[in-house]
Structures are given as structure tokens and as C-alpha cells.
Design a protein that fits this description.
Length: 296
Amino acid sequence: MIECVPNVSDGRRQDVIEEMARAIRTSSGTKLLDCSSDRSHNRSVFTFVGEPQALEAAVLALYERAVAAIDLRTHRGVHPRLGAVDVVPFVPLAGATMADCVNLAKRVGEAVGRRFHVPVYLYEDAATRPARRQLEHIRRGQFEGLTARMAAEGWAPDFGPSVPHPTAGASAIGARPILIAFNVNLDTDQLEVAKSIASAIRQSGGGLPYVKAMGVELTERGLVQVSMNLTNFQQTSVRRAFDAVNQDAARRGVRVRESEIVGLIPEAAVSQEDAKTMLLTEPLEKKTIEARLGEY
């Protein structure tokens, strides 16, 4: 069993999001476990599982819907994005290896480039060169800077055309271990507070290991958010990341309003006690891979 967690650049149009979810749900041999959408990020995250051949068919069905429906020339959201289907990671679960996921990423990447004329960069364990291993390096400049980025030396895509798709941009497709997307919402509208906290806690700023973080503004809610990716929850736990944000916010006289998990997590990652302390917006049992698999 392999997990696939595509991030798609639409979190506002429910009809489009449901059409993409239906494409996955009706693909034979796959189980759609979760769909998380956010209006401010203007992004949806789908979590589904299956065997390699079934996942390949489901991802291509998702691309068919997304490329037809999403135009990045008019897309606006606080989350960085490269493409309509922004990133497609494959994650080994039961009985699968990272090599299985790398092979699947290459197969899917080739098919996406050929069928949809969307340039594809392989990333993380599937990366073909060190500079492309980290997603943030591939995404630098976002969709708006993609034409210049692709023309630069060493930045031809791994698959597909050498210029961006006019409306769907490009995609990063790869293989990686489990990643936890975790957001902490602060009871303030001061964006600089969230940016400063993110800078202090992320690994690249000398903070917590295996933590990537950015500060974003949730304009519609009058809040700011510290948005994090935890790339190794055994080394830096969700609770530890929350505590770091909470403590830094308190020093600045700001209260944490709530926290949220985007997508699903292993049940070992967060205890019920942690979930209470962290003010999670959803019941923990709805956010674990094991619980959702148990529904099938």
C-alpha cells in the first residue's frame, strides 16, 4: 500500500473540488481517505491509498479534471504554488518501499508530461539532482516566475515541455516519508508576528530540526497563521512544534487561538492529551490514517 497526497491549487470552488475528489473516489483500487480545503491558502489536499497501478490511474484522472478547471493566471492564495496540481508525493505504507514510490513517481511524471503537456520536476527521494530535492527550491519564483526559471541553466524539467503550461504551470512529483502539515492560528492580524515566529522556529533559521515554517495572513478570518511542515515527526513532534509557537507567541503578548492538521497523520504522532492542549479544530480520530483506513 502506498499513500498519495496531491496538493491542488483550488480551495474555494466546491464544485471543482468535488469533481476532483470524485475522480479519485471512482478510480478502481483506490480509497480516498480525506480531502482538506482552505479558502485563504486556496488549496486542497487529497489523501488516498492503493497499489501503484491504481494510484497512477487515479492521479491521471485528477490531472484531467484539474488542468481543465484551474487557471493559475487568475489564482490567488497565501500558499506558494507552481502548478494547478502543485505537488504529488508518494509515501510508502504497508509492504511498500521508497524504491517503489520513486519508480511510481517517475512513471506518473512521464505520463503527466506526455498526456497533459505539464512540465514535471521530480523531487525528494525521486530527485534527479541535489538542487531539486527540496520542494521549496523547485517552487522558488512560483507560477509567475516559472518561464524565467525554466529557461535558466539546469532547470529544464525531468518530463514534459520546456516551457510552462499556460494555465496549469508545472508540477513537482516525488517520493518521501510521511510529512505532517500543521498550522497554528494566532489571535492577531499582525502578519509580522507570524513571520517572525516562523523564522525563529524553522530549521533553516536555527530553530527546530525537521521543521519548515512560514507566516501567512488569513484575511477572511482576521487572523495570522504559522504554517508548518514537519518532515520527521519522530525527531520533532507535533506537540513540540506547537509548544515552540505558543511560547514565542506568548513572549510577544499574543494568544494561540487554535491549531489544525491538514490531511492525515499516523495515530502515533499525536495523543489525545496533546490534541486537547493544542486546541485542535477537529477530533483526533478523524485525522489519523489508521482510523480512516478502518472505515473501509
